[in-house]
Amino acid sequence: MALSRALRCCQRVFSWIPVIIISSVVLWSYYAYVFELCFAFTLSNTYMAYLLIFHVCFIMFCWTYWKAIFTPPSTPSKKFHLSYSDKERYEMEERPDAQKQILTEIAKKLPIFTRAQSGAVRFCDRCQVIKPDRCHHCSVCETCVLKMDHHCPWVNNCVGFSNYKFFLLFLSYSMIYCVFIASTVFQYFLKFWVGDLPNGPAKFHVLFLLFVALMFFVSLMFLFAFLLIDLCGSYFWCGLFNLKERSCFSEAFSAPVFQNGPDRNGFNVGLSRNLRQVFGEDKKLWFIPVFTSQGDGHYFPLRTLCESENPLLANEGKWMEDGGSDEENENGPSVIIRMES
Ligand SMILES: [Zn+2]
Ligand SMILES: [Zn+2]
């Protein structure tokens, strides 16, 4: 017991290493750009402009990175947890059929459209919670996270409903920061090759600034492109990159299962509405890391939902009876209960 607690403690400490690495690189880039480049080499009028733009990029980068790291993941509200009496009933019951009935009864009162691949109500045994749509259990955070996209080691946090906007902005400002550094340092890099730069440690800082900025930019670009595909759906990006439609990392690897079967694009309501879902209605706040996402993370509009369709899981007969494994076993244990037709 004490050993597992010590291991968990070590794991928590080590999980901060990627954040410390990124922070150290960024702090070094600040020192190299401001003190070694601007103060040492840039003697023209562009010096002030460089510094001003650099500081805007740097502040926005730090702000969004901070928010992506320290915004706690949203967890399902109380109404998705089993009540004390339901929990007792559920635990006392040993027959899977009866357990299924208990969960189905509770799920009928909740705005849930998706099930496990087996047709079972998506239930997290660890958190004792009926999972809302797009909610997944994170084995690193040890909790169910609303609209979980993925657990990102570089922010040591789950990217989900609460910080999806911050994470996208963090990637955007990181790329702008890298592009700005690379484009302004490039001229000094050329001078370095023709031997125009004075000797000293400053020129190596300049050289490394360019390499590091380009390296980070290329890595970020791939992740950013992938997230844009998530956000925009198939309408533009998938055609551009020749990729299939998807809605988030988790959904890219296991499509959410609806009454009519699995549909990777089930929550994709078009570019404009997807953007407003994440960034909110007020476009002035789109580029600032304040929370403006729509909804509460428990319910998301569906692409195919008809107005007349009952939003609750009333039509149980439509769910498939045959099994298959629960798609979320890797993320955490779920109770598999088959539905009767
Ligand atoms: Zn859970
Ligand atoms: Zn997590």
UniProtKB/TrEMBL annotation:
Family per similarity comment: Belongs to the DHHC palmitoyltransferase family.
Domain of life (superkingdom): Eukaryota
Transmembrane segments: 12-35, 47-66, 166-186, 206-237
Lineage: Eukaryota, Metazoa, Chordata, Craniata, Vertebrata
Sections of the chain in a coiled coil: none
Entry keywords, A to Z: Acyltransferase, Membrane, Transferase, Transmembrane, Transmembrane helix
Name this polypeptide is given: Palmitoyltransferase
Species, as recorded: Sinocyclocheilus anshuiensis
GO molecular function, one term: protein-cysteine S-palmitoyltransferase activity
